[in-house]
Amino acid sequence: MAEHKDYGLTGVNQDLQLGKQGPHIKSNGDGTVRVTDGSGVTLTPMQGANAVSSSQFVTKAQFDVASKTYSKANLSAVYSDSSINEGDVIVVTDAGDGEYAVYLAKQSNPLSTAHLTLVSSKDSAGTDSGTLSTTVTFNSGTITLGDISQGSRPLSVVINVTTPFDGTTAITIGDDNFNARLMSTAYVDLSEQGIFVTNPSYVYSDSIDANNTLKVYDTAGDSTVGNATILVGYS
After folding, report:
1. Model confidence over 162-178: pLDDT tens digits?
2. Contact at 8 Å (CB) between 136 and 218?
């Protein structure tokens, strides 16, 4: 049969077969379509190029690259795996306290808990609460802990000074509207090794999570050493 092209066609049959014994593109009758194999019954995959804009379909290859889930025995195993990328989910059997935890990698090849966001743990899963954590040094500057949802309340704020600060660095915890909302300098002595705790009563009410961003404000002074771990538990 000679090749025939008719650009005036306004429609085709409900079931369009591509070539002899080829795949079918079929109408579902509700404005959607499905692709089946030569039998016209069994669904079959479609192939295409990787998407390059927000309005295009993405391929499985792009999903595989975008995010992976890792299962690790402990945090040491996490830090030794250089294949972990930013955005990957990491399930750790023992997070150091004999209990499991789920983390989100904040950067590729994480080497400490400062590079991870705690998503859930055995304790938080049981109490419907969450924990945000980070590690700061004497010159860390402002660090974003994370966003919390409308109606969330920070229950406890902990600064664990592991290496005393030798100068005038100041650390507060709060948000951009009030840098010391959750903990001010009055509640922590950075010159001493120890654990300092506050129990705020503030409830974040903005409906946009990005407007409820908790941060650590590390104001640079003349310190040359100092290290602390920050934990914020919320419900």
Report:
1. 999 999 999 999 999 99
2. yes
